[in-house]
User: What shape does this take?
Amino acid sequence: MTPLYDGPVIDAHQHFWDLEANHYPWLADNTLVPHRYGDYSAIKRTYLPADYLRDAAGHNVVGSVYVEAEWDPSDPLGETRYVSQLAASCGRPNAIAAQAWLDHDDADEVLAAQAGFARVRSVRHKPGNPDRAGRTLMSDERWRRGYAQLARHGLHFELQAPWSQLHEAARLARDFPETLLIVNHAGVPGDRLPDTLRGWRDAMDTLATLPNVVVKVSGLCVRGKPWSVAANQPVIDTLHALFGAERLMFGSNFPVDGMFVSLAGLLSGFAQLVHAWPHAQQRAFFHDTAERVYRPLGLGERSTGNGSLPTNGRTSR
Assistant: This one.
C-alpha cells in the first residue's frame, strides 16, 4: 500500500477571528443566521493563529490562506489590516482572500487598496440567494462590472455558491478568462444523495472544461452527520477525474469544520482519501497547487509563480 502523505501542507482555506476585539455580525451574541451546517454556536469563540497551530500539531502544515470571515461589511480594509498584523506577528496566514463588495460604488477603489497588501491574492463576495428567475449577483451587470476589475488589479476570485448556481459561475469564467476563479468548498456537493451528486457532478464537469477554474476541496461536512472518509471518497474521486490533482487544493475550513472533526483528523482523513494517487499528485493537492495559486509568503522558500494554471491540467473534453 502507498504510504499516507506526510509531506508539506498549505491549508488553502481557513479563518481567524477575535470576537472580543472585532465585529463579525454573524458571530455576535444572540445571532444565528441560516447556515448549511445548522446551529454554529460552537464556533462562537475567538480563534487565532496559536489555536490553529495547536490544532495542527503533529502535521506538516507549512502555511495557510486566510479567507475573509464576514467581518463588519462597512470596513473591508479593516479586516485585511488586522489579518496582515497577525501575519507579521505570528507568521500566519501566508496569503489572504480579502473581502470586497463588487456591486458597491467604491468597488474599484476597494479592490485597488486590497491589492496593495502584500499577502492579498484574491477576494470573496458571496453571490447570495437566487431571485425568482434563478439568478444571483453573478448575473447582475453592476456586480459583473466590479468582477471585470479583478484582472486589472491582479486578483483572483473566490466563489462560494451551491452547485445549483455553478452554471452562472461557468458563464463568469467564460466571459472573464483572464481572472482565475477559485471554487470554494468543492462546489458544495450537498446532502450526498444520488440525485444531488449527479447534479453536482454535471455542474462541476462544465467548470472543469474551463482552464481558468481551480477547486478548493474544503467545507465537505454535512449537517447532522459526522465527517468521514467513506462519505467523501466519491466526491474526491469525481473531482480528481474531472480536474486532475494540479487543479485541486486542500482546505480545512477551520475553525468552522471543527464542529464535525478535529484538524488532525481532517488531515489524516484527506491523506487516506488521496492515498491511491501518485505521490506527485498528492503533493500537488496538499501543497503545490496552493503554492502556485496563492504565492504564499514566509514558507521558507518563496514561490515565484504567477498563479497561472499548469499546461497539463484538463482544459477540455
